[in-house]
Structures are given as C-alpha cells and as structure tokens.
Amino acid sequence: MRSRSRSRSPPIPQFPLILSFPTSKFNEETSNVKHEIVKKFDVDRLHISDEVTMTDGAFRFIYIYSDSLRAKIDSLRLILEAIYPERGQGEVNISFQNLIDPSSIVKLASRGLNTTIQILPDVKGFPERQAKIIGKLSDIEKSIKEIHAFSLDKKPSPEPKIPGIEKNSAKFVIAEECVSDFVGRGEVFIRRLKADNEVEVKVVNGQGLPCKDTENIVVLTGKHRHVKKSIKQVVTKIIGSLGTSGALEQTLKILILSTHVKELIGPQGSIIKDISKKAGNAKIKVLSDSETEKNQEFTIVNIDGSLESKQEAACKIYEVLYKGEKLIPRPYTPDDDEMKIFVSVPDQYVARLIGKNGENVKAIMSKAKCKISFQKAPIAELRSSEGEKIRMCFVSGNSYSISRGVKLLLEQISKLESI
To answer: Among 126, 174, 358, 400, which residue has the fewest nearby CB atoms (within 10 Å)?
Structure first.
C-alpha cells in the first residue's frame, strides 16, 4: 500500500499476498530472492516471517505488498522457482480473509485446473484462514491468482510493524545501500557522534509500513540539546551517503509518530509553513492521510531543498515535536555549552583523590555534576614551584559544574596536605 499526501484521497485498501511454506524448504537462495523481487518488480515490501508452529510442523510466511496484482504473481513465480527448482509438482499454502466463505475458495482454486485444495485449521494468533493447494506449479500459480484477485477488495490484514524504537528520538529513513557509508568504516562516524555529542545512534531494519524492505532507520537518542546538536551532522552524512551511492533522489526522509502529524502541520498548515520559511523555503511533504494515521504507528516526512535547508528543517521539526527534558532548578544560571579545563595536581595525592575503585572522585563528580579524569602519568618536564611531580586533572561540564568540581578538588587536596 503506497503512502499518499494529505491532499489526495486515501489509498484503496489492498490485501497482501500471503503464502506459507515448510521451514525445511527455505535456504539462503530462497531468502536472497527477496532482494531480487523488490528491485525487479513493482513491489513495495516483501516480508519473510520467523518460524510459525502449525499442526504439521514449522512454517515460514511470505507477505508480498504491492498495488499491482501482476507484480505479486511475478514475485510468486520467482519464489516457486527458488523453492521448487525442478518446476514439477508442489504445494503452497495461501491465506485469505476470514470473511470469505471457504467453499468459494475451493471452487476458485480448482476451477478448470488440475489442483486439489484443502482448507487448513485456524492457527492461533493468525487472523486469516489458509488453504493448501497441491498440483503442478503452473496450475498452482493460476489458482493463487484467482484466489488473491478475489481477496483484493476485502479489508487488508495488518502487516508487520517496525521494530520497537524510542518514541522521543530523532528518526531518519535511509536506503539500505547507504548504511555502510553512513556508519563509516568500523562505525567511525557513529562512534565520533557518541563521543562528541553524548548521543546514542543505532540503525534498525525498516520492515513494515511506512518503510520499504530496502530501507533502514537511523535512530538518534539522548538529551534534547544533545540530539538537536547532532541532527545537522546526521543530515549531512545521510545526504552525502546518498550521493556516494549514486542515488538519483536526494530527499531527506524523517520518521515521525502518526499521532504527531496534526501537531506538525498545525491549523491550516501554519506550523509546517513556518518551518519551511525559517528553513530557507524547504519543501516539506507529510506522506500521510486520515486512514494511514489510524493504521500506522509512524509516518514519513519528505524534505527537499539545499543541504542547509534540510538541516534546518530537520532541527525545527524535532524542536516542534519533542520539546526536550525539563531542567532542574539550580542556584545559578550556568552556560549550558560544555567546556573543559585542566588543573595541575601534585602527583603524590592522585591515588587518594581517586580512592579505592574510584569512590572518592566519583563522589566529587556526583556532587558537582561534572566529569573528572586524571592524566595516566606525570610529565617529567612539569614540576611545581617546590619541585614536586605534577599530574594534569581534566574537569569538564558547564561553567557552574566545573567551578563546583574544582572547588571540591582543591578542598580535598588541602585536607591531604594538612595530614
């Protein structure tokens, strides 16, 4: 089922072609045919489930989503060739809606064809009925086409959902072939982003609406200000990865909760128009309508324009939808930009400042809300005025937490000197 803009009428519901085969019939070649189908035919998604236990063993279900019946049948042919390479006799289970009379399915599947059909018992937790078709593969294809065409005007079955991801995160849709360039060799880009901005970055499979099987989702989580700081770097990297892969489409795709669509658009489109204007007239399109909002957890937002306008639009959308964490009141109003300073500490006191298992320095960091680390060894060239060895101590945080941390450190050193 294709996503449509809000200005168009809702898409016509389409029932996916759902087939099942014994797990024993699956091998690496069968799984690889999935990628060939998605690239070759007009198929939005092809999902292969994990094992499902049925009365006569373990089965794998294949869901094929497309508006084109021909694309589904062409996909079926490739799947059958992979599972039954000899192209002789075979058997396939096809799913149909519960609201369809099973006797109608029997008539359709065997009409003028050399096949036998058996209605299978219900499977716990599976909403559709299943029919087993046995016969020549060419006849099975024709039977499946008849059954599936009969099902197309019925209410669609819910397809697999996107894996659980953090709701208050920044989410970007990226083509599968761009992922390796995005993360970098040895995941260098992700590691640098984590270290510099204190955010978590992960890439998850995008199976399930509104994504395609050939897409992944970049999930960016952390404190509001840290995520916001990272968005421009992520957008730059995604657009660069699209260029490296040779993709013709340079559209930035953001994933938002469907429940946030109205909040993003605003009354008469006021909010989204304001974001577009502030982002250098970026073209922002929400791929949603009233029906998909009801049935899908997430919705894709497309952003076109210059790199700068894409960056700015992505930041503004994140600001509108995720207001950020509440700040804890403090005695002073510190500068929130993180800084780092160093303090020279007599080497002879470092071990006691750190304490057993780091308990002393951890206590200081907890009180001051800052980070403290010590140089591993003193530098030979550096000495105090009394000729003592010196070790560098690094203190990082905002201005308030740094001043608090240094004060506590000096107090501890003063106590150690008086002993």
So the answer is: 358
